[in-house]
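Homework help board

Subject: predicted structure for assignment chain

Our instructor gave us this sequence and asked us to write out the predicted structure in token form, then describe one feature. I got the tokens but I'm not sure how to describe them. Can anyone check?
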Amino acid sequence: MMCSYTTANAESDYDRETDKESEEDENSCDTVRNARRDSLDLVNDDEATLTFDSAVEEELSQLLQQADHLHSGSDQEKKEGFQLLLNNKLVYSGKQEFLWRLARSYSDMYEITDDAEEKKTFAADGKEEAERGLQMESQIAECHQW
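My token output:
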């Protein structure tokens, strides 16, 4: 004897199962979306900026230490320090600590070179960098010195 299965509803069992699976899939997608949003919220903009600023400051600090070391070396090392600072001018020209070292480096180049025209150029460019450093909010004595 064959049994026949009927429901009181006009909706078939298949349709109910399909609808139930669709709801579960939608809920699952919402959970994933919420988890992604929550994980993105874990690092807010202020923290990301602080992390980036800290990294930039660390790189600048290392660069300045290297420039200081090269400044106290031979003429060849002073030339290397000058080139190092020139190569990073676009990145750090807004920092006083960088600008006075660049001005000092121009002074080093002035002392090293024998050509009168090059001396004038190094002196003028160094003065310009030091003045740019002095125009910033806080004044650093080394900008006056160099």
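Reply (TA_rk): Your tokens look well-formed. For the description, you could write something like this. The radius of gyration is 33 Å. That's the kind of observation they're looking for.
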